[in-house]
């Protein structure tokens, strides 16, 4: 039974990872031409509007999908269909209300918010993205519901539709509004987020209507059913600490954004230069940095219902297995990504954007991929077992450290904008360490230093050498072609090293497509642990 649940967890994560990869590729198809169209200054306006939306979005929806997923998972595990239906109704009412309020605040307060972040020209962009809060709130309710049932396909479909909408609508509006100035073109681009969110919400409503009969085959009461008020209180009690933690972390990013530009001016840069440097960091380096962690969000989303279901059923052994598998897989995936992005930072930027100005920033920032990925997964684990306040405290500590480091380093003319990625590394490293300590205490999970650190690090070190050697010979081939051999060499060498060091376990392979046949072959050659 546990094997079936673990397989469901991994297959759900695989579906979401595939969707997230496609979404990121669509995102690149949007962002890359956009950088050519509006440049670093325009991307600065775009990033400012998007950052304000992100903060409000987290305040409105950060904790609720996790709470919905956890509660639906627990009710489903107990066979209580009637309560599951009630959870969805309460969730929709709560999220739509919050989304509408957030949209109104963001739209009406656009001028005040733009001045707060030190860029009055971002006001129209903030207004353009405000409706996205309502549409994303609707998506969050349905996504949390389906994820709680460990059905990741609706979330995956809606993510792809949302990304396609953002691409088509955003780029078209940016192009049409460019003659009216960069701030308006940026506002058009960010309006694509609202358009994409609307399409994503409509797709989820349609999927729900199609699946409704199978989801709720009867209105029979299976066991005790909590009242709507009790369910609302429970959702809020789970969501509030998650939201506080996420909003504290997001607020540090908003403060970070305003502080970085202010400190750059203090370091001797003009207002325009500060906006351009911020645009280079936020519009060029951060999107590349965000790709691997975004793909790994799938593990976190799938992990919450899997661990919560095992935990509420008293299956602590199963919960520990899911936790160990998630941490191990996350490390094996994120560590080589961190090394690859850091080692090939400038070539990647030149290949994608034909602009390598953010090369040093991305070289530093790349190493944060490992820590951010593990923070996502470990936060999800603590939330799944009911310890929702621990990530709040840990993120607050990490956020404070980030603000302090940025304040000190960005003001230094010798370091300036490069202080921002250093702050990100330290912040997430602190949160990761505190989370891992808490998980060990709560679940008595044993970490294998060899499997989770030594073997992946050794494999990554050898991979890094192969990547640098391959790039040295391929550098003259051109800014796009020269990336293919180093990346291919890195993947091949890393996989060889993992199997040579026996860092991959048999149970990991069994969860892959045709896993049994592959495991048989690998076991024959003594490549599996």
Task: Look at the structure and give the mean pLDDT.
Answer: 82
Query: Which structural category do the helix and sheet elements fall into?
Result: mainly alpha
How widely separated are the two ends? 23 Å
Kindly state the percentage of residues in helix: over 70%
What is the radius of gyration? 23 Å
**Proportion of beta-strand residues:** under 5%
Order of helices and strands: HHHHHHHHHHHHHHHHHHHH
Number of E strands: 0
The biggest sheet, with number of strands, parallel, antiparallel or mixed sense and barrel status, is: none
Oligomer: single chain
Number of helices: 20
The shape is: globular
Task: Identify low-pLDDT runs.
Answer: 1-7
Can you walk me through this structure?
With 529 residues, the chain is mainly alpha-helical. The chain is built from 20 helices and no strands. Helix 7 packs antiparallel against helix 8 and helix 17 runs antiparallel to helix 18. It is globular and about 65 Å long. The two termini are 23 Å apart. The N terminus is likely disordered.
List keywords for this structure.
20 helices; 83% helix; 529 residues; single chain; mainly alpha; globular
Put the structure in a nutshell.
The protein is mainly alpha-helical. 83% of the residues lie in helices and 0% in strands.
């Amino acid at each position: 039974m546990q094997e079936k649940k673990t397989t469901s967890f991994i297959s759900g994560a695989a579906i979401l990872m595939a969707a997230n990869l496609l979404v990121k590729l669509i995102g690149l198809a949007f962002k890359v031409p956009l950088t050519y169209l509006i440049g670093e200054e325009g991307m600065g306006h775009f990033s400012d509007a998007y950052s304000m939306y992100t903060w409000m979005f987290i305040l409105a929806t950060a904790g609720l999908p996790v709470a919905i997923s956890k509660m639906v998972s627990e009710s489903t595990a107990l066979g209580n269909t009637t309560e599951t239906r009630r959870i969805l109704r309460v969730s929709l009412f709560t999220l739509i209300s919050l989304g509408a309020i957030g949209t109104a605040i963001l739209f009406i307060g656009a001028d005040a918010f733009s001045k707060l972040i030190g860029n009055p020209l971002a006001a129209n962009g903030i207004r353009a993205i405000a409706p996205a809060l309502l549409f994303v709130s609707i998506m969050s309710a349905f996504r949390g519901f389906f994820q709680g049932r460990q059905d990741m396909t609706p979330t995956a479909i809606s993510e792809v539709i949302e990304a396609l909408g953002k691409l088509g609508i955003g780029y078209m509006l940016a192009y049409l509004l460019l003659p009216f100035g960069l701030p308006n073109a940026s506002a058009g681009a960010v309006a694509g987020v609202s358009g994409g969110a609307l399409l994503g919400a409509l797709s989820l409503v349609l999927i729900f209507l199609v699946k409704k009969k199978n989801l709720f085959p009867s209105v029979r009461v299976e066991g005790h059913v909590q009242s709507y008020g009790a369910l609302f209180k429970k959702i809020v009690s789970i969501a509030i600490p998650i939201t506080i933690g996420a909003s504290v972390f997001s607020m540090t990013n908003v403060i970070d954004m305003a502080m970085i530009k202010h400190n750059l001016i203090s370091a001797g840069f003009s207002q325009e230069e500060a906006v351009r440097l911020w645009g280079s960091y936020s519009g060029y380096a951060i999107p590349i940095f965000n790709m691997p962690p975004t793909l790994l969000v799938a593990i976190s989303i799938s992990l919450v219902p899997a661990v919560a279901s095992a935990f509420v059923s008293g299956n602590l052994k199963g919960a520990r297995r899911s936790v160990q598998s998630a941490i191990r897989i996350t490390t094996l995936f994120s560590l080589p990504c961190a090394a690859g992005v850091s080692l090939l930072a400038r070539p990647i930027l030149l290949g994608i954007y034909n602009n390598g100005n953010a090369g040093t920033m991305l070289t530093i920032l790349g190493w944060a991929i490992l820590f951010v990925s593990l923070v996502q997964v470990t936060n999800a684990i603590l939330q799944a077992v009911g310890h929702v306040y621990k990530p709040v405290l840990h993120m607050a500590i990490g956020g404070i450290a980030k603000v302090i480091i940025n304040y000190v380093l960005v003001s230094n003319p010798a370091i300036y904008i490069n202080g921002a990625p250093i702050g990100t590394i330290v912040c997430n490293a602190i949160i990761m360490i505190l989370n891992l300590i808490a998980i060990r205490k709560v679940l008595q999970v044993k970490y294998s230093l060899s499997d989770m650190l030594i073997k992946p690090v050794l494999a990554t070190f050898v991979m890094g050498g192969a990547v640098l050697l391959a790039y040295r010979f391929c550098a003259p081939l051109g800014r796009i072609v020269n990336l293919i051999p180093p990346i291919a060499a890195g993947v091949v060498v890393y996989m060889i090293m993992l199997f040579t060091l026996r860092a991959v376990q048999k149970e990991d392979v069994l969860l892959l497509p045709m896993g049994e046949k592959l495991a048989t072959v690998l076991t024959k050659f003594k490549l599996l642990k």
